[in-house]
User: What shape does this take?
Amino acid sequence: MRAVMKEIAANARSRRCATIVLAALVVLVFLLPDVAGAHNVSKRDATFVVANNGRAIVPFMYLGAKHMVTGYDHLLFLVGVIFFLYKLKDVALYVSLFTIGHSLTLLLGVLGHVNANPYIVDAIIGFSVVYKAFDNIDGFKRVLGFQPNTKIAVLIFGLFHGFGLATKLQELALSQNGLIPNIVSFNVGVEIGQGLALVAVFIGLSYWRTRPGFLRHAFVTNTMLMVGGFLLVGYQVTGYMVTR
Assistant: This one.
């Protein structure tokens, strides 16, 4: 009887974990217009960046960290990436690939003046969420009969996420005085924000995985993640069509 009661309690805790995750995704769906633009630079931050002339290492690090923590599309992709990663070395590997990708295109976009349409870039970022959630439910094997290389995919999508960061900075009139150290500091801040967010997510997932119902609820959670990603894609594609 005690064993049965413990199992019931464990399943209840697992359902609570799943409910929290699903509730967050439902909020994402219903507040999509706000979320889709959530990682834009705020007016206050934009005013500071435009007015700044010279090195501002700490402020740009703060802006980078803030940008990542409030960048729901970036974070949703990373949640998908580490969802079924149990070992820290695997998390470090995939996050490193993502970091290399977005660091290259962030620096290339801002310092190399490589431009891309922000709506198209953000639509691809939304699709990256769909891709990883579909991968997490074994969609490629079940539906298409093959499994893409996840490491390469994370690196490639990291490149687009970096362009997503770059397009937001390209919209501002950045001073050329101190530009390189400021952008490098911004990128360092992005890594700090990413690390803090991932630590919290990994701790939450690690606890949830100890619950008996994790795998059962994981399918529904990743399905909702796909829905959120598709809506982000639709929002950005609509924005692109309207602006044209």
Summary: The first helix runs from residue 2 to 30. The radius of gyration is 19 Å.
